[in-house]
Write a structure and sequence with these properties.
alpha/beta, Rossmann fold
Length: 172
């Protein structure tokens, strides 16, 4: 595994250092790609070290709006681990999560750690390959409101995709 510098920008507010978070880590991942493999192993490792970790265990309904409980868990987390995989961008839920994570990380100086799991980081940043295909599907018959949401998804992916993280595309 190649380790690179991790982007962290501490908050200038003194309240950040005293804030108590419900979760130390929030895991964002595409269930069908990594739930029963990499994500399970990472989750178990974090829990065994005593790290309070949020992992959504529910299979989310296709096309639905992101659950308020997920948004709240993001707001109540200190560190965000985003596991970008081949089909991550095909999920509206994942894309809504990455927008919220990007907003929380930018405004409160939290740690966002991307993991590029069997996907090239440039595909995330530039929305190429499987990410491009996912956006073509999202854009089909999109009304004005959905086009605005798609733009937010694209911006968040480009922003988070530019952060240094871990590139696991060569590992099984």
């Amino acid at each position: 595994m190649t380790s690179t510098n991790i982007s962290y920008s501490p908050s200038s507010s003194s309240s950040q250092s005293t804030r108590q978070f419900t979760y130390e880590v929030f895991l964002s991942f595409r269930g069908e790609d990594t739930r029963h493999g990499f994500t399970d192993h990472l989750y178990e490792a974090l829990i065994s070290c005593g790290i309070r970790t949020f992992r959504d265990d529910e299979e989310l309904a296709r096309g639905g709006v992101i659950a308020s409980e997920l948004l709240e868990a993001i707001e109540e987390s200190k560190i965000f681990v985003i596991i970008f995989s081949e089909n991550y961008a095909a999920s509206r839920w994942c894309l809504d999560e990455v927008v919220k994570i990007s907003e929380c990380g930018a405004t409160e100086g939290r740690l966002i750690l991307p993991i590029f799991y069997h996907v090239d980081p440039s595909h995330v940043r530039k929305q190429s390959e499987s990410y491009e295909k996912a956006f073509v599907d999202h854009e089909k018959e999109a009304d004005e409101e959905k086009r605005e949401k798609i733009q937010k998804w694209r911006s968040a992916l480009a922003k988070v995709g530019n952060l240094s993280g871990y590139d696991l595309q060569k590992y099984q």
